[in-house]
Amino acid sequence: MKKAPIIWLNVLVFSITFAVAAIGVPLYAMTVGISAGIWWAALALFVFSGLSITAGYHRLWSHRTYDAHWSVRWLFAIGGALSLQNSALHWSSDHREHHKHVDHDDNDPYSASRGFWYSHIGWMLREYHPDKYYDYNNVKDLQRDKIVMWQHKHYLKLTLLMNIGVPILIGALMGQIIAAMLVVGFLRLVVNHHTTFFINSLAHIWGNRPYTERNSARDNGALALVTFGEGYHNFHHIFSGDYRNGVRWYQFDPTKWLIRGMSYVGLTKNLKRASEYQIEKARMEVLWLRLQQRQQTTAEWMQHEYDALLEKTKAYYLSRKKMLDVKTQEMKDQVAHSALVAQYQELKHSFRQEKRRWKRMVRAAL
Ligand SMILES: [Zn+2]
Ligand SMILES: [Zn+2]
Q1: What pLDDT score does 309 carry?
Q2: What spacing in Å lies between the alpha carbon of 218 and ligand 1's midpoint?
Q3: Average pLDDT along the chain
Q4: 276 and 308 in contact (C-beta within 8 Å)?
């Protein structure tokens, strides 16, 4: 079969940035030296850009797991341009296809079934689906987001400004323009690129599958450390509508902490979560299917036990949810009550003062 044509622009961008980061940076560091300020600036922009992809491109726009204030969306659009991974609209369109057709050789744009290289970077180096490139039918909802469309329209300008303009500006402020171009520009970009690409490649190869074995996505705590929490990819593929990827409180998922943190100050809202019962049920189902596979035939009594366990689990989580709802209501009532008490005290105080003044006035007039 004839191979798809090579996209030379992408090949050049990926190989030149990689070569400069791998060879240029250490050479410059050894011969001229790079100040600590440059490294800190690169780290800050790495975090900004990484979180714009995970919290913005991925969990906000691709999956609509929460709503965000326009200022937050604007920051994500800027940080997304800094990551040089195409516009949020295009990225989300690809990503929705990935979820819909996961592991399908042709329809999943970065299918892990075609191997590490293809899912990591290979899929961007050739024109595999030129017919579908501008098909944005699956992101019609995002076309109504003015910030998404603004970023899509001005993507080239924005990405050049963020990847060349900003490093030059930082370098000028610190008196080390070349060092800033190398570290804040090239090295930071390459690290941003490959850590994100790992989610499509490694997170579909390396790790375990506690929630579903129907696709290749894996949970991997080590990967979560360098991907702002996206390493919990097995959970994500079955509960993609949940704003969390690391669902347990202790799982390293700075993206979920950021989204949650912003909700406390009203910058994000309507954070969506899968029900605790569904999550637990998924875990049980995986074990049950594994057991069936191993034993080939399962005794009837085991099926009964499993069904009974599912029933109990459902009843437990339902009652737990009810209890938590009552608790939240109680807390809300308590807050309302204390606000009422404070208002009452204040009114009582001013009423008494007013009454005293009135009496004084009356006394003086009589
Ligand atoms: Zn995936
Ligand atoms: Zn996803």
Answers
A1: 87
A2: 9
A3: 94
A4: no
Q: How many whole angstroms separate alpha carbon 99 and alpha carbon 110?
A: 10
Question: Which-ligand-closest: CA of 233?
Answer: 1
Confidence of residue 244 (pLDDT cuts 50, 70, 90): very high
The 3-class secondary structure across the chain, one letter per residue, is CCCCCECHHHHHHHHHHHHHHHHHHHHHHHHCCCCHHHHHHHHHHHHHHHHHHHHHHHHHHHCCCCEECHHHHHHHHHHHHHCCCCCHHHHHHHHHHHHHCCCCCCCCCCCHHHCHHHHHCHHHCECCCHHHCCCCHHHCCHHHCHHHHHHHHCHHHHHHHHHHHHHHHHHHHHCCHHHHHHHHHHHHHHHHHHHHHHHHCHHHCCCECCCCCCCCCCECHHHHHHCCCCCEHHHHHHCCCCCCCCCCCCCCCHHHHHHHHHHHCCCEECCCCCCHHHHHHHHHHHHHHHHHHHHCCCCHHHHHHHHHHHHHHHHHHHHHHHHHHHHHHHHHHHHHHHHHHHHHHHHHHHHHHHHHHHHHHHHHHC
Q: Which single residue is written with the structure tokens 């800027």?
A: 78
- Residues for the chain: how many in total? 366
204 CA distance to ligand 1 centroid (A)?
6
Quick check: 66 and 270 in contact, CB under 8 A? yes
Are the CB atoms for 124 and 196 separated by under 8 Å? no
CA 316 / ligand 1 centre spacing (Å): 32
User: Which ligand has the nearest atom to the CA of 96?
Assistant: 2
The pTM score is 0.87
102 near 212, Cβ under 8 Å?
Answer: no
* CA-CA-CA-CA torsion sign (8, 110, 253, 147): positive
- CA of 139 relative to ligand 2 center, distance in Å: 14
- pLDDT recorded at residue 364: 84
